[in-house]
Amino acid sequence: MILAAQDLTLRRGDAIVVRDLSLTARPGAMLGLIGPNGAGKTSLLRALCGLDPVAAGVVTYDGRPAAALDRRTFGRAVSYLAQNGRIHWPMKVEEVVALGRLPHGPAEVDAAAERAMAAADVLPLRGRTTGSLSGGERARVLLARALAVEAPVLLADEPVAALDPYHQLQVMEALRDAARGGATVITVLHDLTLAARFCDRLLLMKGGRAVAEGAPDLVLAPERVRDAYGVTVETGTRQGEPFILPWRRSDAEHKP
Predict the structure, then answer these.
(1) CB atoms closer than 10 angstroms to residue 138
(2) 38: Cβ–Cβ under 8 A, 6 or more apart, which residues?
(3) Strand order in the sheet with 56-61
(4) 124, 143, 178, 209: which one has the fewest Cβ atoms less than 10 Å from its Cβ?
(5) Dihedral Cα 13, 18, 24, 30, nearest 10 deg
(6) What one-character-per-residue DSSP string does 157-189 give?
(7) Which pLDDT does position 253 carry in this prediction?
(8) Could you tell me the maximum CA-CA distance found in the chain, to the nearest angstrom?
């Protein structure tokens, strides 16, 4: 399913948080949304999945406006992993993951839920109640719930923010696998190396606008990173894959 936005403008109260932004995300690829705090990444992601209204422009799914999709169809088509998601009731982990199957019928621990728990590395936690989990474990359970939908569009807002390095890599691999399996995946990231390694394309935002879009090596050129984030970077490759490390604040680079 092709997810597209055309000339999108979003407001929060009186403030414009995204202005005249267009993008296209296609099946089989992962698009990373990057940019400094306050760039509008989360607002954009929420608008793409219909959680927030748009002030101008249009969001389409395979050319159809979201409003043209009935609620059940939309629930099957789009899966959303929120930033800092919460679990409000004391449920078993496998029961939470099974909620991802609701758009398809009863919330059962079926084969899709089992696949999702394996991908998010929460199978060992399946019998535990959510109140006993750490923040990182809870984040992986919520990812498993999102994966269990097996929707053609998967939107994930900072999915690695609460995770240790092992699980950061594992989650990025799970998102990439979902894309390689045919899903359209869009994720918000702050780790530039993960963005460079795992995303097929990047959209760099600043001040609510898109300032660059394309292949990671082009979008993450040192001068672009400096302009967007105000930092200098060190770059290189390891085993044929890129890394990019924020090194100094650009306003402090000449200080001892």
Answers:
(1) 22
(2) 207
(3) 15-25, 3-12, 56-61, 64-65
(4) 124
(5) -90
(6) ESTTTT--HHHHHHHHHHHHHHHHTT-EEEEE-
(7) 56
(8) 62
User: Looking up tokens 């040192």, which residue turns up?
Assistant: 222
- The structure tokens listed for 167 are 């699980």
d(CA 148, CA 118): 10
Domains of the chain: 3-252 (3.40.50.300)
Tell me the pLDDT tens digit for each residue of 80-137.
999 877 787 889 999 999 999 988 887 788 999 999 999 999 999 999 999 899 999 9
Buried/exposed code over 179-188 (b: 16+ C-beta within 10 A; e: otherwise): beeebbbbbb
CA distance 203 to 30: 11
Q: Are 41 and 188 in contact (CB under 8 A)?
A: yes
Kindly state the tokens that stand for 190. Answer: 């702050």
DSSP three-state, residue 86: coil
pLDDT band at 256 (very low <50, low <70, confident <90, very high): very low
The Cα–Cα gap between 90 and 108 comes to 17
**Partners of 154 in the β-ladder:** 79, 185
CA–CA distance, 252 with 52 (Å, rounded to integer): 38
């044929």: which residue's tokens? 240
Backbone angles phi and psi of 137, in degrees to 5: -65, -40
Q: Measure the CA–CA gap between 146 and 68, rounded to whole angstroms.
A: 23
Q: Helices (DSSP H) in the chain: which residue ranges?
A: 41-48, 71-77, 93-98, 111-119, 135-148, 165-180, 192-198, 216-219, 222-229
- Cα(46)–Cα(25) distance, rounded to whole angstroms? 15
